[in-house]
Design brief:
about 15% strand, alpha/beta, about 325 residues, three-stranded antiparallel β-sheet, TIM Barrel, eight-stranded parallel β-sheet
């Protein structure tokens, strides 16, 4: 059931991918997702370490995943900010025999050939159909169309998942994975109905037993409502979706004033680490998607995937019932 080009290409049971999630994408979570039939993905800086330790940190998490599962897994590379570091991380993944790479930000022309020459399946995150076409022309195997509902850094085009996915599906011939605002069987089936051949889920996997983010962050997610996320850093040229707290509200004040210097000074460095890894739920940044308000319980990755797949049967049955009524 639910076999697509993506499941065949990646060698996975279900077309469900874990989002890279930078520091939240630890080895134990990736292995749990893979063991449950999806594609587990290690983040670009799991657990958070300083820049000079990130290469060995990635190597450690890759080897840990291999200890915990024999199933396919991938690594996420964020290349728009530190291309030189990304190159070193990619070299490390190649050395360690990683078979799947998800590239976020930057031109797909930068690393696609290097990755494919190493026999790696390449997936590239896009926010509009033009970028999807560019990725396909560069030789990318799969594009991930991520809508504006997603947590963390978002596309400046601000297209929602429901709008973006059909645009991208119609623009390319390679498989498309839908991301942004998907956390259950309803979102899963809807994404496939829009033409996607898989889904990428980030926020729901943060609130899991295996994810290494701080417990206070997880509990903040459980307390969230439908309006408890907002976008920050627009005036700095970025769009970062996070939970509403003292930090986010202050960032919004700077935004309204157009005070970029004040925002930069207040932002400083390490706010995401403070919120997600150290548990400062008021002064730190907690990147999460709009689905946070629908997450009400911390579960295992296996439970989440089983619920999505088992629930998809009743979702499709309801659609057929409505069609025949």
């Amino acid at each position: 059931m639910w076999k697509t080009r993506v499941t065949g290409m990646l060698g996975i049971q279900y077309p469900i991918l874990e989002g890279g999630m930078t520091m939240a994408g630890n080895a134990e979570l990736a292995a749990a997702v893979s063991n449950a039939g999806g594609l587990g993905v290690i983040g670009s800086n799991p657990g958070w370490v300083p820049v000079d330790k990130r290469v060995e940190n990635l190597r450690k998490h890759i080897r840990r995943v291999k200890e915990l599962t024999s199933k396919p897994f991938g690594v996420n590379f964020t290349v728009f900010a530190m291309a030189e570091l990304a190159e070193k991380l990619i070299d490390t993944a190649v050395e360690e025999g990683v078979k799947v790479a998800i590239v976020t930000g930057g031109s797909p022309k930068l690393f696609t050939k290097t990755l494919k020459d190493a026999g790696i399946v390449v997936m590239h995150l896009v926010g509009n159909s033009k970028h999807a076409k560019t990725a396909e022309a560069a030789g990318v195997d799969v594009v991930i169309a991520e809508g504006y509902e997603a947590g963390g850094i978002n596309s400046p085009d601000e297209l929602t998942t429901f709008v973006l996915v059909p645009y991208v599906v119609d623009a390319v011939t390679i498989p498309v994975v839908a991301a942004g605002g998907i956390c259950d069987s309803r979102g899963f089936v809807a994404a496939l109905a829009l033409g996607a051949e898989g889904v990428q889920i980030g926020s729901r996997f943060v609130a899991t037993k295996e994810c290494s983010v701080h417990e206070s962050f997880k509990q903040a997610i459980l307390r969230a409502s439908d309006t408890d996320t907002l976008i920050t850093q627009r005036c700095l040229g970025g769009r970062v979706r996070c939970l509403r707290n003292e930090y986010a509200n202050k960032m919004s004040e700077y935004e309204k004033l157009g005070d970029m210097d004040g925002m930069r000074l207040f932002l400083g460095h390490g706010k995401a680490r403070e919120g997600q890894m150290l548990g400062d739920t008021e002064g730190g940044e907690m990147s999460i998607g709009q689905v946070a308000g629908r997450i009400v319980e911390i579960k295992s990755a296996k439970e989440i995937i089983e619920e999505i797949i088992n629930g998809s049967t009743s979702v499709t049955a309801r659609c057929i019932e409505l069609q025949n009524s």
